[in-house]
Amino acid sequence: MKKVLVASVACITIFFISSAFYQKYDLAKSIERGKEVYTTYCITCHMEAGNSTPGVYPPLAKSDYLKKPIDTLIDIVLNGQTGEVVVNDTTYNGQMLPLNYLTDEQVADVLNYTRNSFGNKMKDPVLPEKVKVLRK
Questions:
Q1: What residue ranges define each of the domains in the chain, with the CATH number in brackets?
Q2: Which one, of 99, 109, 104, 105, lies nearest residue 78 by Cα?
Q3: What is the pTM for the complete model shown?
Q4: Strand 90-96 vs strand 81-87: parallel, antiparallel, or unpaired?
Q5: What are the pLDDT digits (tens) for 8-61?
């Protein structure tokens, strides 16, 4: 019984600490910084409105692909992607070069920007700490 109580208290403590962190994380500022990263590194292929070049690069606008797990999206930004990918029921077969030279904060920011722009709306932020863990 004592072990269950200790485990319960630990879980509740972790929950509140995590909740406080998410509340402190300024998603709006991250999105603002992410727009700069997007404009510098992504706009050439994915275009200003995120609609990309039809048949060549997958769109980010209203993209079902951006609903994939955050770990997957971070991996794509860091390591690139080749081969077939289906976005909004359309198959693309190209290459995205790795952007592993971006900082952890830049990766998080550009993902927060794309996941909350172009008709996308994701509430859970991508955190730089998560990028750092997955980069290793």
A1: 26-135 (1.10.760.10)
A2: 99
A3: 0.81
A4: antiparallel
A5: 555 555 554 444 444 589 999 999 999 999 999 999 999 999 999 888 899 999
